[in-house]
Design brief:
Radius of gyration: 13 Å
Largest sheet: 7 strands, mixed
Number of strands: 11
Shape: globular
Distance between the termini: 40 Å
């Protein structure tokens, strides 16, 4: 059973940084596409970034709102989301999610992900 666990959320001032971690167990993360998605109060869940497994080609994607500020990376069974220059509009619950289907590039559509972590709260406020 594939399981994901996020950590690293917290309260940060605008302009600050956080690094989120997603630990994948029950499956080798190199063979699943991993996405980071977030949900702000009263809003739909949106894709922030994703990293492909490499089976269908290696790609990473970023939402326009975070390009140049967020970086996704992988080290063994942990996927990181480095978030710099944080803005109040980055506030929300951040989820990591896994798409175990092989040989496809990752996408930012939440419907493509079958497995989800419990989420970690990120609050950007002065």
């Amino acid at each position: 059973q594939l399981q994901l666990a996020e950590s690293g959320g917290g309260l940060v001032q605008p302009g600050g940084s956080l690094r989120l971690s997603c630990t994948v167990s029950g499956f080798t993360s190199n063979y699943v596409n991993i996405g980071w998605l977030r949900q702000a109060p009263g809003k739909e869940r949106e894709g922030v970034s994703c990293l492909s497994s490499g089976g269908g080609g290696v790609n990473s994607e970023y939402a326009d709102s975070v390009k140049g500020r967020f970086t996704i990376s992988r080290d063994k069974n942990t996927v990181y989301l480095q978030m710099n220059s944080l803005k109040p509009e980055d506030t929300g619950v951040y989820y990591c999610a896994a798409d175990p289907r092989l040989f496809k590039l990752c996408v930012l559509n939440a419907k493509e992900y079958d497995y989800w972590g419990q989420g970690t709260q990120v609050t950007v406020s002065s």
